[in-house]
Amino acid sequence: MSAPRVSFVSLGCPKALVDSERIITKLRSEGYEIAPRHDGADLVIVNTCAFIDSARDESLANIGDALKKNGKVIVTGCLGAEPEVVTKTYPNVLAVTGPQAYESVMEAVHKAAPPVHDPFVDLVPPQGIRLTPRHYAYLKISEGCSNHCSFCIIPQLRGNLVSRPASDVLREAERLVKAGVKEILVISQDTSAYGLDLKYSESPWKDRTVRARFYDLAKELGDMGVWVRMHYVYPYPHVDDVIELMADGKILPYLDIPFQHASPNVLRNMKRPAHLEKINQRIEKWRKICPDLALRSTFIVGFPGETEEDFKMLLDWMSEVKIDRAGCFKYEAVEGASANDMGLEIVPDDVKKSRWDRFMVHQKSISANLLKKKVGKRLQILVDEANGHTGIGRTKYDAPEVDGVVHLTSRRPIRTGELVTAKIEQSDDYDLYGMIV
Questions:
Q1: Spatial separation of the C-alpha atoms in residues 44 and 109, rounded to whole Å
Q2: How many CA atoms does the CB half-sphere of 352 hold within 13 Å?
């Protein structure tokens, strides 16, 4: 009897991608095959996103597409936390489960397509099944979030912060390194709050114990001999200690901090930290400790109540702080978010679009000027794509998919996943161009 075949759709952020990897690893360990297409598979699993309305629409569209092409669909992920939203539109889905509900997903799979397990054939690598290229991987250190930003419903969808014991995280990281991963991207909803719910308790790791604390975890990961990149870090005071690890070359000099805005009025309405002077002082201190620190952030324009003065304050702050990489979103009201009930004036769509355009032009100029300073330097590059004597890679200042790249040329063939040194010969608004030396 042939093994059941499951087609899989993974939507949303890297944290959802890790959830997908865990489900697929479980499927493969039980003998299921992963099908590349919906038609011909025994069933389809759709791991959904519901962070904003456009993400919900995309999730519902993918569920509809899977039902049309296959007919047997299991829905999981963030949209699954509101099953009535799914079943109202598609009452014939097999099951709906919330995020991180791995066992519930597998129960639904077993009912729809019982496994045919052969332990001599169905081999799963120790690091599990990954949906990223072999040379980098996301490492999720916690679930949920205990912050209650007015524009966000993550705590309602995924619950409050639940950190993994440090030893569990480090064991997974070690397996990834042994499998050949060259870069570990640490992710969670609030990475610098890691371990707060555990009261920073210790867990056994090799010949010692390690605290479930941001600094301690970063230090241990930094000893594994690979690139370690920190995402979704709130600028708490104890982040200062981790900057010293960056200055010492233990982890990459890169911080992804979701600032969201610079106007104190907007930040207060967002229920975000609004002490801009303290944040500016902290960034100045970080750059003194680690001069080549790269900052990435995301911002929201058009939040309810945002005035032209608020927006100009954001642009002025961007010019002052000079964020290396910045993404920007036009505000979308999310059902269930407290911002909907604050009675703030709604920003018209055309104003949102205008501010988004102005933000992107402003940041493009900042990015272009910062990248010009790298021309003539020799930088270490991790190769993401190779095509003979040309390739595309990233510096330690850039994360995959969200930041810029380095377009490479070489006198010898380039290999995907290798670390090379390149002399930077040219730059544009977002990318670099270099020759491998």
A1: 9
A2: 18
Average pLDDT, the chain: 91
Are 197 and 161 in contact, with CB atoms under 8 Å apart?
yes
How many other CB atoms sit within 10 Å of the CB of residue 88? 9
Q: How far apart are CA 82 and CA 65, in angstroms?
A: 20
Q: Which residues pair with 390 in a beta bridge?
A: 387, 409
Whole-angstrom CA distances from 115 to 1, 126, 343, 358 are 10, 21, 53, 54
Q: Is 145 annotated as a binding residue?
A: yes
Burial per residue of 238-251, b for 16 or more beta-carbon CB atoms within 10 angstroms, e otherwise:
ebeebbebbbeebb
Domains in the chain: ranges and CATH: 5-112 (3.40.50.12160), 136-372 (3.80.30.20), 378-436 (2.40.50.140)
Distance between CA atoms of 323 and 370, rounded to whole angstroms?
Answer: 9
Task: Determine whether the annotation assigns residue 290 to a binding site.
Answer: no
Cβ(132)–Cβ(92) below 8 Å:
no
Judge whether 372 and 433 are in contact, CB under 8 Å. no
Asked if residues 187 and 140 have their Cβ atoms less than 8 Å apart, the reply is yes
CA distance 377 to 371: 11
Model confidence at 331, in pLDDT bands (50, 70, 90)? very high
**Which pTM does this prediction carry?**
0.79
Backbone phi, then psi, for 79, in 5-degree steps? -65, -25
328 is in an annotated binding site: no
| 149 marked as part of a ligand binding site | yes
Q: Residue 361: is its pLDDT beyond 80?
A: yes
Which strand (E) or helix (H) includes residue 208?
A: strand 208-211
